[in-house]
Design brief:
With 193 residues, the chain is an alpha/beta fold. It has a single domain, classed as Rossmann fold (3-Layer(aba) Sandwich). The chain contains five helices and six strands; from the N terminus they run βαβαβαββαβα. It has a six-stranded parallel beta sheet, sandwiched between helices. α4 links the parallel β5 and β6. α1 packs parallel to α5. The chain is globular.
Length: 193
């Protein structure tokens, strides 16, 4: 968990939950995202998945949903969270899981950030979270044609507001896309106030 130095218990802050890629760990997020969280005044929580990757694949949430709930409860017990400004995001398998959880819990998460997602579980659906998806056009792990270009139109058709960006790189979270995602998130959080 990262809490901005300017945090005051009397002023609830937005929360961004970040999910790592398959085989990664929560610490993967804290280099560049601590800096971004500080400047954006956002609390960041990054739990680890229970196994090598999130859930049991494209049709099941597995036990990781309960682990994320426990992480949310822990953060809320330590910090004042603005419950109208909650976001979930991730990279690769973490992005797929974040997108799935965000759609299933759109009454909780107002915003979803997905860097190179490979799939999303389409049911159940609650709420209407705003979605930011970024995918590298040279992604060799989760090819953009098989993934984001295929399901972004279906998300839009289902009524989700989707901000979709492609960038000229491989399977990664680029610094430029991270900055754009945080700017998008800040704008969405400002509108929710």
């Amino acid at each position: 968990m990262y809490v901005p130095k300017s945090y005051k218990p009397s002023e609830p802050l937005p929360l961004l939950v970040l999910l790592h890629a398959s085989g990664g760990s929560s610490s993967d997020w804290f280099g560049s995202y601590a800096r971004r969280a500080e400047s954006a005044r956002i609390i960041v929580a990054a739990p680890d998945c229970l196994h090598k990757t999130w859930g049991a694949g494209p049709k099941d949430y597995g036990g990781d949903a309960a682990a994320i709930n426990r992480a949310l409860a822990l953060v809320a017990s330590r910090c004042a969270i603005d419950r109208k400004r909650l976001a979930i995001g991730g990279f690769s398998d973490g992005a797929s899981y974040a997108l799935s959880m965000g759609i299933a819990n759109g009454d909780l998460f107002t915003n979803v950030i997905a860097f190179a997602p490979g799939y999303f579980i389409g049911k159940p659906r609650r709420g209407n979270p705003a979605i930011f998806i970024a995918h590298g056009v040279f992604d060799e792990i989760l090819p953009v044609d098989d993934c984001s270009r295929r399901f972004v139109p279906s998300l839009r058709q289902a009524g989700y507001p989707v901000e979709y960006r492609e960038f000229f790189n491989k399977h990664e979270v680029s610094d430029a896309m991270s900055s754009q995602a945080i700017s998008w998130l800040q704008a969405g959080f400002a509108a929710a106030r």
